[in-house]
Design a protein that fits this description.
287 residues, 6-stranded antiparallel sheet
Length: 287
Amino acid sequence: MKPDRPETKPPADAEARRAVAPVIVYPPETLPQPDLALYRKARAGADKVADIFVPPRDARAFEVPAGSFFRISSVEGPQVGDLNLWNAHDISERFFSGKTRALHGTHLSTGDRMWSSLPYLRPMATIIADTLDWYGFDEFGGSVHDVIGTRCDPYTNCLLTGDPYHHCCHSNLTRAVADKLGLPLKEAEFHVHDVLNVFMCTGFTRDTGQYFMKASPVRPGDFIEFFAEIDLLGALSACPGGDCSTGHSSDEAACYPLHVEVFTPPEGALAGWKSPKPNGYDRSHGR
């Protein structure tokens, strides 16, 4: 955090330096654009093939074939979730929240994509529907579905409070991955990564630049829906913070389940679509 009272005297041209206009680092116009019309047409005829209920303060893993859809819904009460994605055939390829943030911004919504880690860097999933897209950015700079928070974890909680709370999202996801893949917990933990914070309302304070959360606007019936660009393994944690209006990493907040549904369209519904190949860079790195 920057000091409230800087120790360095501002130079004579301080205001001129601050007034320099920003430049968007990665202009999105050159990104390959998803065919939302095709995806939505295929979705309209898709059949549900799986139902997964994620209990409060716990996580569940699920699979979604390429060309299928998955929906995450709020049920019973306002609840946020932490989402991890992997290539179902090679879990070294996983969701890259940092690059997704750089390409699409701090919060995701319809038309944005979840990109995979280097050296693959390809779309893993595309958001095709979001019932909270009306929220936008509020007066505090907060918005929904962020890729800035990492996930609540027992290590940070132990560091800040001394409490080794075992149902943080990191631990929930670790258990889910271990159970799904038959791995020891200590091995599974290394595959858990920074998340898409589904339904979570977050931002950065204007004065100190600190990460904040506030009560999520999600209500039962709200959902976010994705198109699987590759064969996916997913894991979703129902955060111990509930709607994250007060805190997390404890049993104090009211928490509710989350619902994951998987839908597969009929054969031929995605005519012309192909699953994206890994990034085209040759990995020579100048040699």
